[in-house]
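Handout, section B. The chain below has 716 residues.
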Amino acid sequence: IKIMLFSSQAVSTLARRAANVSGKRSFASLGSYEHYGQNVFTGSVADEYLQKHGADGSVLSDPSWTKNNADIVAAAVLDWAVDRGANTFCHWFQPLAASGVRHGLTGQVQNMMMEFDRKTNDIKFDFKGKDLIKGETDGSSYPNGGLRATHTAGGYLAIDTSSPIFLRGDTIFIPSAFVSYYGAALDEKTPLLRSNEALNKEGTRLMKALGYEFDGDIYASIGLEQEMFLIPRDQYYRRPDIQLTGRTIMGKNAPRGQEMCDHYMAPLSTATAALACMQDIQEECWKIGIPLKTRHREVAPNQFEFAPLFGLNTTQVDQNIMVMQIIEEVAAKHDLAALLQEKPFNDINGSGKHNNWSIWTESGANLLDPNSINKASGNDASFGIIMAAIIGAVDEHGDLLRMSIASPGNDFRLGACEAPPAIVSTYIGEDMTSYLESFKSGTIGAYEPGSKTIDLGSKSVLPFEVPAQDRNRTSPFPYGGGRFEFRAVGSAQNVSMVNTVLNTITAEKFGAFADAIEAGADPQTVAKEALEKHWKVIFNGDNYDEENQKELTERGVWRIDSGVEAIHTLVSDKNTALFETMGVMKPDECAAREIILHDHYSGTVEMEALTMIDMINQNVIPSVKSAGVGPLADLEAAVPVLKNAVAAIHAAETSHAKAELARVLRLETMIDIRATCDAAEEVVPADLWTLATYKELLFLDQHTVSDSLLDDHYEE
C-alpha cells in the first residue's frame, strides 16, 4: 500500500495547531481545538444562535420547546446550519436488525431546507418548527416482526430532545424515534427512551424511601469502548466473505497470531496508514462533539480501540453509531477497510464494545459510588441497598442480559477466552463481597473502598496507591468502582437493547424495594433478604475456567449457550410481563423483536453460506485444480450440503425454527467445510491461491510499503 503519513485533513489540523505557536508558546492553549463541537447544536453553540431569535440555550433543557418554541428553535438551527455550509436536513432514526448489514445502522431521508417558487424560479431557505419536530416516511421495507403490513405502512418520526441535533457535511441530523401509525416501536431508540422513564420513576421512589430527595431526574450514564480491525483495502477486495458478511468464513491461520501479545498497546506506528486514519476519525468526531479521547492497539494483529467520555445513554448510543459510520468511511480514504464485526478472524481475539453503565441524579450523585450516594443521601446504608437491588436484578433477569448480547458475531466470541462466557454472573471483588456479607448478616455501615500501597523498592518511583480490587476481565458484568461494565457486548451492536434491559431490570427491582419500604418494611431488611436470595450470582473467580463454569451452572446462574435460544427468552411470560409493567414494551413489541432478531440471525447465516458456496466454486476448487493437489472431491461434495441446508432453512415454518437450523449450519456444518477449505489453502502454492490470506490481511506493520514522503516529514 502506498500511503502518506497524514491525510490532508490531519495535515490541516496540525497546521492550525502549529499556527498557534508564534514566538513564545502559550502553555496549555486550547485555541487549536476551537472547532470541537461546532457542528452540534447544544451548549454555547446553540445559545449563540437562539439569542439571535430572542431565546437562549436554556430553552432546549425543557422538552416542551417542541410545542412552545419549535419555530424559534428551527430558525436558530437554520441559521447555524447555513453558517456551517449545510442546506439539507433529515430525521435520523435506528431501524431494527441493522447490525452487520446496514451502513451506519440508521435510516434517513435527506431533504433540502429550501422552498422553490415555480412562478419566479426563485429559491429561499425554508425550515420551520413543523419540519424539525416530526416527519413521516414509508415504513414498509424496515424489519417490523408483524407490527405493520404493506397496507398499513406509515412510519412516523418524532425528535428525541435528549440527544442533540448535529451537522455533518451539508446535512443536519435530527435524532428521532420511529414508530408505526399505532405507536408501536419500529426502532431501537423508543424502548430505550421508555426505559429511561422507568428508571427515573422507580429510582426516584427508592431514593425518597431512603431519605434522599433532590431536584431533577435520575438517569443512566454510559461509556462505550469501540473495538475494530483495520485491514489493507486491496486485500479486502480479494475476500468476498469479508466484503459481504464482515468476517472470514474460511482461511488458514498465519504462522503468527497473537501468541506473543506483541500488538496490545504497542506504539501506533507512523509507517502504516492506521495512525493517520485514527487521527482523522478523532477529528471527524470532535467536530460533532464526540469526545473520542482514547485510542490504542488491541490484542489481535490489526485490532484497535477508541473510547469516549461518559454521557447520557441516548446521546452516547447515537454518538457510538456515528463513530462506527465514521470509522468505516474514513478508513476507506486511507486505503483501509474497517471491520466492526465481532469475530472477523479465526483463532485470534474478536471485538467487543464494553458498555460502562452508571446511574446518576441530576444533582450530581452517582448511585454506584459509595461515597457519593451515601453523602448525598445522608444514609450510610444507601449504597448497600442499591447494590442489593442490582444484584437481584442480574440474578433474576440474567436471561434478558444474555438476550441483549445475542448477535450473530457474538456466536464465535463469547466464552472463547477473549470475552466472558454465556453465563451471567457478576464480579464485585472480595472487598465489597466482604462488606455485603456483613450487610447480609445485619452489620450496617458505610462501605469504604479499600486500597493498597505498592512499593517497587526504588527511590526513583515512590510508593503509590491502587484500588484493593483487581480487574476481572472474565466476568460478563463486573463492578469497576462507580460503574458496572457489561463486557460481553458485541462490537457491531447498536447497544440500545443492552441499555434498555439494564434500565428495565434495575427499575423493576428499585420499584420492588420502594414498594416494600413504603409499606413499612425496614430498608436494610429488604436488602438483606434480596442478598440472601440472589447471592449465587456473585462470582469473583475465573469465568474462563471450565470447572468454575460448571459450578456456576450448578448454582442455577443463568446460562444460555445458544444465542438463538437467548433471543427466544424475550417472549417468556416473565419477560413480557416485566417490559409491559415497566411501560417499556408491549407483548406484541416483544414478539416482533424476537421474530426480527431470529430473521436477522438466519439471514446472516444464509449470506455466509451462499458466499461460502461461491468462494468454493470460484476460488478454492479452481486453485486446487490448477495446483493438482488438495481435497478436490471433498470440496465438490461440500457445495450440495450447503445448498440443501439453506433450502431447509427456507422450508422451516417459523422464524425461531429457521434460526435453529441456521445455527447448526453455521456452528457445525460450515465449520467442518471450512476445515476442508483451509486444508486446501495449506497445500496449494501461494501463486495459485487467489484469496487474500491471513498473512496478507492481518499484518499492516509487516506489509505496508511506505512512501518516500514519510522520510520527508522528519527532515529538520
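Note. The chain has 25 helices and 20 strands. Compare this with the example in section A.
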